[in-house]
């Protein structure tokens, strides 16, 4: 937590204490939470890559050439 800033009024009738704190939710993740998010992103990328390879395999002709005319 940030150090408080104390502001004294000119008449000594009041004292104001202000705490400045920068709060960015992505920076407040625990390592476990960050790892879970990174794992989910990698899983989505892996599934997308798998689908891409499956579709590419289905588009290969008998000569081993990729048939781009279907796209």
Write a compact overview of the structure shown:
By secondary structure, this protein is α+β, with helices and mostly antiparallel strands. It has one helix and two strands; from the N terminus they run ββα.
Explain the overall architecture:
The chain is an alpha+beta fold and 71 residues long. Helices cover 39% and strands 14% of the residues. It is built from one helix and two strands; from the N terminus they run E-E-H. Strands 1-2 form a two-stranded antiparallel sheet. Strand 1 (4-8) and strand 2 form a beta hairpin. It is rod-shaped, with a radius of gyration of 29 Å. The model has no long low-confidence stretch (mean pLDDT 80).
Main β-sheet, spatial strand arrangement: 1-2
Strand content: 5-15%
Low-confidence residue ranges: none
Backbone shape: rod-shaped
The end-to-end distance, rounded to whole angstroms, is 56 Å
Q: Describe the sheet with the most strands.
A: 2 strands, antiparallel
Radius of gyration: 29 Å
Number of strands: 2
DSSP helical segment count: 1
What is the helical fraction, as a range of percent?
Answer: 25-40%
Look at the helices and sheets and give the structural class. Answer: alpha+beta
Roughly what is the average pLDDT, rounded to an integer? Answer: 80
Secondary-structure element order, N to C:
EEH
């Amino acid at each position: 937590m940030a150090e408080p800033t104390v502001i004294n009024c000119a008449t000594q009738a009041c004292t104001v204490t202000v705490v400045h704190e920068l709060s960015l939710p992505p920076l407040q993740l625990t390592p476990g939470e960050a790892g879970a998010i990174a794992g989910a992103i990698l899983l989505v990328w892996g599934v997308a890559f798998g689908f891409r390879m499956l579709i590419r395999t289905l588009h290969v002709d008998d000569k081993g050439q990729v048939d781009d005319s279907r796209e």
